[in-house]
Design goal:
Radius of gyration: 30 Å
Strand order of the largest sheet: 7-6-10-4-3-13-16-15
Helix content: 25-40%
Number of strands: 33
Distance between the termini: 75 Å
Shape: globular
Amino acid sequence: MVIRCRVNRNRHYRWYAIVGLLLSLALGIASSVSPLPELAAWDTLSAIHGGSTETSFVPAAEIDQSYFLPNNSIPTHYSIALETDIHQNVRTFRATTWVYLTILEPSDRVTMHLQELTIEEARLYRLPSSGGQPIEIDQPARILNIALEHVTFRTASPLPTGNYALRIVYTGIMLNYQSGYLASQYRNEQDQWRYVGSTHFQATHARRLLPCYDEPALKATFDLQIRHHREYTAIANMPRVSRDIDPANREYMITVFEKTPRMSTYLLAFAVTDFATRENGKHQVVARSNAINDADYALQVGATLLERLEDYLGVPYYDYMPKLTSIAIPDRGTGAMENWGLVTYGEPVMLYNPAVNTYRNRKDVTTIIAHEYAHQWFGDLVSPLWWQYIWLNEGFATLFQYYATRLAVPGDEYWELFNGEVIQRAFQDDASETIHSMNENAATPQAILGLFDSIAYKKAGSVLNMFRNVLGESSWREGLKQYLTDYELTVASEDTLSFYLQQAAQAIDILPQGVKVQELLASWTNAPGFPLLTVTRLYRDGSMILSQNRFMNGKVLPIEHVWHIPYNYAYESSASFYDLSHYDWLATPAAKIATPVPDTEWVVFNKQQTGYYRVNYDRRNWDLLIEALHANHIAIHRLNRAQLIDDAFHLARADLLDMSVVLRLLRYLRKERDYAPWQAADQVLTLLYEQLHGTEHEHAFLVFMDELIEEVYGTLSVDTVNPGESTLYKYLKQLITGWACRIGYKVCLERSREALRNEYSIPTAGQTAVPVHPDVRAVVYCHGLQEDTEPEFQAIYLRLMNSRNQAERTDLLRALGCSQNANSIRTLLATIMLSAGPGTNFIYLSEERAQLLNAVTAGTTGVGIATFVDVLNDAVTLQTTISIAGAGAVESAVRNVAAQCNTPKELEQLETLLKAVTGYVSSATVESARAMAAAKLDWFHSAEGLIVAEFLASYNNI
């Protein structure tokens, strides 16, 4: 099997292409030596199954090849013995690891990755080809390269090709953030601090636990044993083999686990805790004992999601792994990690208690579990050849994060959120002139980490969903099944996926003549940004001109790259929005097409916004669409109504459409009852409100908003929840009632205030407290605190301090930041400093101080910001706040203040703050805050600002 590379200088990738030939031989030699892994079909590293090809990716720029490991050896198995005293909050660990490896070419050096480990001893053994015990042959010298995170073991003489083992004894340290073997803490039922250890190795942090070949293509098997205190339990990727008392110290146990399948180093995982476990067959959830009941939903929905993913993909999970455990780690934020067989979560995205958590928390838990479980196939079973292809992991996981819920819990309607939360948000980042492509190369750990962004997640998920729709469910599923089956336990690239999708699409007439999936997909993955499809109707027998350019924030670039754009359309007399069975292609900068669309009817391209591109029309078609929306908006699909709002707004911001078109379009919202269009409109209206509040134009905007929400608000209740309310109805209700209270609806504010008082005020004789339902708490709490509500403020803060539910704590912090009582805000800010004292009652989790500062400074009402500026104007207070909350938290708050500057008075307030923080935060933060504020004031002199002001003024005179 031969692989040819177009870029010969890219030695790192060329090596992986020949690993198949070398490793098959190497493993054949070593197969009789325990505990090395079974024979592996490493020839599946090639990009096309069973043949030769060329890799299509050409790096945009040279990368530092020195960070890659040399080509002379590969791992086959790791045997790890770890000792930890995390039960005593000891942040060091000791380990002995056997690294079984194959020398591919004679060399006196073996190089691996290592970071912040202290090696005490290293011994090299030869593994006899005939079997038997390893034979010690050397105690190699060690050469550390801290910058490259390499350790090289140098032998006295060159080693012949063959199989060897390195036995390495070392110590390491635990950290509090997501890199390596981590420490975290929680309070138990007795209010005592307890300490636990867990791991997070993606992308390049396995080297913080063991010397290893820490690159995704260099898969191996692992066995693990952990020595820990007997009051604690160890769990890992694989089931436990034994748990025995340590004969050297009966206070400790030694837990041994089964050997893993072949997998990448970043997927190794374990945890050492005193947590509780609940099981549903082979599916398990683990959480602290005082929160285990909150894991019941994850146990139930996780099992269902896993089953539905198995059915959809046609590849059973338990054919490869004997169990699947999800564990909730306290004080780890809202992240999660897809370790094969042991998925780790921050508590807010795994634990759900309907008594205190909201419908949004439930959605987060459900979709994040779906995301991580999709990774069990996309990333774990088949891993990326290199990090440039991380979108093969994260793009699929993002798509199935929503789509799997359509299969498992369709009544929750989460799939309906995909366009607004994924496609439209991806557009925002992907419209930057400095954004990178999906296929972005990287070498350094920092650059690799930078690839885990919205391009890898949201853009890739959007592009993959586009191809799912174009190919159709049957071909799409068949292609994925063969991709996963043929490449199981190995690694893949974009060409691998393209090959299998091409094979599956052979039987359908959907692709352009003579063009393969590989070329179609590459047009989206190898270039940054996304296209704007411009539809210019000739109004002459249905003729139209379609053209494409790259859409940018503020401009459109000339054609330098041509996308293969799949398009379809609906029109007034053929509103076939639900028919996604046919697509045509635009693969040139422009083309003239003939259509059956009558010249007097509107047309909408990109049905249900399944394609990853924006659409602009000539002014007449925009007018026809606006007329249609006002006359009978449901004639256009709800997702396309959302698309029209989102596209029109961003086109106007890029000076490609008159902003008055957007404002005229928005007026139809008076009749809108679906959430998706309101979700898109909320972004537009929020930006306008943030620009106009406090100015002479604010009143006109409030009148405009009043017309938009008056009718729909009349159908909603700000303070009650009916059992039959759907998920999307709850989203809509929170959005509309939030606006109603924000713009001063008296009834909204009074009912919020009354509901808050009924929950927290001391009841009179014969009355009892009435808790606010979690699903309306965000609006009721925030706007209920608009008046002088110090007793309720204190009660909510006390509830925050007593809560053990991290998601609820986040909601309560946001609510407290809404207070309009300056003394309450001042007291709240003071708790940051008080929380650092010994034996304090003001207890915050690691991210909560930053959340508090954000809550106080993110609003537009002014009291929180004014108090924040006044408090931090004291140098001692500023220094203390930075030392406790972190410079990053204060810098974020400074940017929030700058984002609220609409008047000279507010600009003066900002300058007071910037003068105080200069020297304590980065100069870039100070400069960007000042530039942000200046841009906001300049907006009123821009065409956009003048058009908005003129429209609102004219509108109020109607």
